[in-house]
Amino acid sequence: MKIVKILTFLTLALFYNITIRADIDYSQKIEFSGAFDKLKVTNEGVILGENATNYPIPYYNGIYQSKDLDLNFSKKGMEGFKITDIDSSNGEVFVTTYSSTGNSQPGLYKVTNNFQKFEKIGRTGFLNKVKTFKEKVYYGGNNYGAWVINKDGTNNKQILGSDNYGPQIDQIKSNSKNVFILSRGSLYIVNPDDTLTLVLSPYRLGGIEVTENEIIGFSSNKFIILDFSGKVIYEKQFFNPLSIVKKYLNYIFLVELSPIEQKIWVSNDLGKTFFESKTKFAPAKYIKEIELSGKDNISIFLNITNERIIKGKFKFDFDENKFLAPPFSISKTSDLVDKITSFFDHRFPYLGNKSEPNEFSETTLNFYGNELKKPFIYYSSHDGIDFGLPLNTKILAAEKGLATYFYNEGGLGHAILISHPNSYITIYGHLSELDLITNSSTYVNRGDIIGKVGMSGNTNGPHLHFTVYKGSKTLENKVDPFGWQSNNQDPWITKSNYLWDVNISNLNTEIKLDKPNTLSFEKLEITINQISNDNTYHLSFYPVAAVFDKINFKYIEGTSYKLELSNLLNEKVVSFAKLRFKGFTNPEDEKRYSIFKYNGENLIKLETIFNNESNTLSSYTSADGQYMVLENGFKKISTRSNFKTSQ
Fold it and tell me: What is the pLDDT of residues 303-322, one digit of tens each?
């Protein structure tokens, strides 16, 4: 049976030219040599703690810092200390040490004044783990158990072990509510009063990450997800032992260690499916830590034991799922989202086939994770994507397959359904009766013209209704071809992956804001004000589907962008900026159009200025959120309608 499955998969791989990868790109590899026990990405840059044991010591054995992500490190302090762990919070850095070459004692140190001042707090000893949590610091060592102390150095007490000694501490993690301590395979939850609750797991855990609701970890060669009582929610077995688990955004990274190589596996569905990276290391080049930074433009850092830090770019690419071509001609990739006039409703995409619960009947949850309310939504429980296209626009087969015609007077009107060889189904609705490729069934190739945009069925404006099914054509198998792009949980029962074979163009960059910075992308130019430090920030702006009150405003195509400015930990940073939308040539445009901000709840009209020398509309605002240009005073009839798509 396994052989049949493998052959079937290989046949599909050849048919679709599939390349499975979750890759780390080292084409522009950056390295920094040294023997580091700790690699940490902080708001202040990348911090390293060196712990070299070679004698005579040719090493610094202290703290290094790179203010940017390009591993331009400088020595910052604590020279001679063997650094074992580092954590930071609100500019305060806490460090555990194993020993030093001078007279200073090993222990827990608080580092301030840009790494120039350090003082020992807490107990003395060979310590190896530290974690800041709210106003406290949790720490431990090989033979000292676990301890907690206030950040100001007061109220130091032992919470695991007794009489100043205790079991080895392997990891200390936290979510927003609790601290978790892993000690020799046993996991403890630290309660608010600093008492411990043992998580009774059937496994001895080798490593963990924690979310708000779950424990993600491994035991030997098993990947495991547990609830906080220790009950196994999910497990997956690998051939060789696992050595690292790392959660970042929606991704989970695993390192598998075999006698001949180390493999890196990556998942974006909480471990249900793992993809193997082409990046591999010999067992001697032991991967000690993985750190990441960024959101769309992700940097990945590997700490290779006693050797070096390596930086690359991480890109998760479901090539086997990316099989759909745009169903209409596009001049740039942003057209794919810019033409969207109604979203797939991830909350309840049954479109009249089932009664939607009252609490969701007036909202649409789109693939950005935004829950849109009146007047922004038109189709609550919408089961597909509507693209606003001119009458008679040619509609193209998104992939080859068997095309079948159907007609539904009260729904999609004249429509084509294509069954694709990989079991997906696509539907193209509201087509013109003229120029349909068939009135029965026929095989089509990718890109074939299958019809034209019409106004058939239940619609009062020309558009293409595009629905995708994953597998058989049942209500529960409807999916969103744009996937789910929010860090929050997708409530829809069937997982939606990004299915388009083109990626939406965007601009993601790491910038310094020690002076004003100007960047351009498509129709938008942005100048971000100076921030009074020399830290590195992430800036991304990219086209998104416009969200606007369609009754009172008309959207100007190609002007809807999402701006995000964050620090190296992906925390939102507020800075003011000047936005300039290009291509407005008429002085009357200042009266006709305004720049609007969508804040997740409402549209906010910004003061808009027309410049007849640069032909731009501009406004001063914050460098975050979704912005677009709308025509003022536009009125049209609401296009809301509830119809069924049963054939």
Answer: 998 889 999 999 887 656 78
